[in-house]
Amino acid sequence: MTDHLHPVLDDAAIARMTSLALAHVGDAVYEILVRTHLACGGTQTAKNLHSRTIQLVRASAQAEAVKRIQPMLVEDEQTVLRHGRNAKPKSVPKSASVAEYAYATALEALFGWLYLKGRYERINELFEVICQGFDAK
Question: Catalytic residue numbers?
Fold first, then answer.
């Protein structure tokens, strides 16, 4: 049986993916991290879970998250982040500036890349730093 939760891709297959494809995967990875963090952290009602999740996954919050983790990133992670930031999505939501959306896409591309490489410990390390910003708000 194929393990769809833990895909195994070689470096060449990941390198062939566009930054927007990595961001597509990373969007889901990041959202599940946020949802799990909130649900396990005591946010109880569905309404509270939903509204807090929306606050934390919106482009402006993801752009702030990039600022928190960027100094920690190694060279290959910085490269993925830069390529994600420079990706050209077809549209930008009204709730975000172009710069915020670019950094949100960069964060999602990074999390997608780390996930597809199976670097779950690194995802947790970076997300832990991001969570410190959640608690400050």
Answer: 27
